[in-house]
Amino acid sequence: QVQLVESGGGLVQAGGSLRLSCAASGLTFSTYAMGWFRQAPGKEREFVAGLSWSGGSTYYANFVEGRFTISRDNAKNTVSLQMNSLKPEDTAVYYCAAHFRGGELFTLSLVDYWGQGTQVTVSS
Questions:
Q1: How far apart (Å, rounded) are the C-alpha atoms in residues 48 and 43?
Q2: What is the pLDDT of residues 26-37, one digit of tens each?
Q3: C-alpha angle 54/57/58, rounded to 5°?
Q4: How confident is the model over 84-93, as pLDDT tens digits?
């Protein structure tokens, strides 16, 4: 019933940009904190960015280093991740996640719903 559908992934050169989007349905979007995780080959899924359910706070993993921006549009039930200055180390499958009335900082155990993921590949 609940669906999170990611889009916007692709292949870019190092230093390039991508904008990922996640469209949510089947839930009251404004009551959920939204976030992005990623999983690279051979590694565990890790937190990238989060935005509180109230929309007032954001939090980023240290490796983001100011390069990414998370935002949400409650009227459209979407959350986006703008990624600039991409590095080969950013290559991963990126997943959209939702946490009921959550804060901006996610852990894997707090996620209520997951998207299917979108592939991001950064070449050098």
A1: 14
A2: 999 999 999 999
A3: 125
A4: 999 999 999 9
